[in-house]
């Protein structure tokens, strides 16, 4: 495993494990346990994934000391507000059966996120959360928040993969000392990315899979990746990326695959804004 250090000194593995779209508790718990057994130490959930309980339970069952596992969760928009966000984080702690969260993110750059940010800042100062960050913040919103916040976000988690590379987002994040995390590192399998000819050729040259090449490419850009899988063989393969390196020429060939637009969700479309604002966060 390779690590990166956040602006507050916290060390994070560059490969984590995502559990979006795994609402079944038994399946989620089994997947997280398999991940932990295979060396993953960063688990990425959210209140809206409906599996924080399963994540908490898997961490306990793994037998690993709590301090060795880095848990991220995210707050939904309707829990934004200074006190509301504090209360929502306490509910998440209860669901996960833990007394602190390693990283809490504002899931979307919508609603009253400035108040929510003040709430997270309070929790950070109290030590209830070890790091605070945001998700789906495009550069202009990230810049604005960084310029007005008492404490800057330590992380921004965004869609990022070879077809949507977010170079400007990366430069903006680096400018403000924010670590980028890539969600959807495989574009959720969209547009035939697993059989892309450029990625396939590079993978063959290293005796690796296209999935491993995509993850390795991100890690070489110093972007944290959060691949999701419910299959043990894929969970194992997705962390086995530290025994090879892409050459500069290969990094450039992958850079040329960027389309500059999302494969999954267009946050800059007002229909998306309406859609996301209509989703309710967990009430329990
Ligand atoms: P993803 O990781 O890009 O893709 C997951 C898909 O790839 C699944 O269908 C999985 O299938 C398949 N897969 C995984 N490993 C594979 C391999 N080695 N070979 C072939 N197929 C493979 O998509 P994602 O789950 O959307 O993103 C990853 C994580 O990012 C999420 O789980 C979540 O934690 C986070 N996320 C955050 C946001 C946000 O708004 N902040 C949004 C989306 C995701 P199987 O499971 O069947 O193996």
From TrEMBL:
Which InterPro entries is this protein grouped with? AKR, Aldo/ket_reductase_CS, NAD(P)_OxRdtase_dom_sf, NADP_OxRdtase_dom
User: Which CDD domains does the UniProt record give?
Assistant: AKR_AKR5F1
Identify the Gene3D superfamilies for this entry: NADP-dependent oxidoreductase domain
NADP-dependent oxidoreductase domain: which residues? 24-258
Which of UniProt's keywords are assigned here?
NADP, Oxidoreductase
Query: From the UniProt record, which GO molecular function terms apply?
Result: oxidoreductase activity, acting on the CH-OH group of donors, NAD or NADP as acceptor
Record keyword S-adenosyl-L-methionine present: no
The molecule here is called: Aldo/keto reductase
**Organism of derivation:** Candidatus Avisuccinivibrio stercorigallinarum
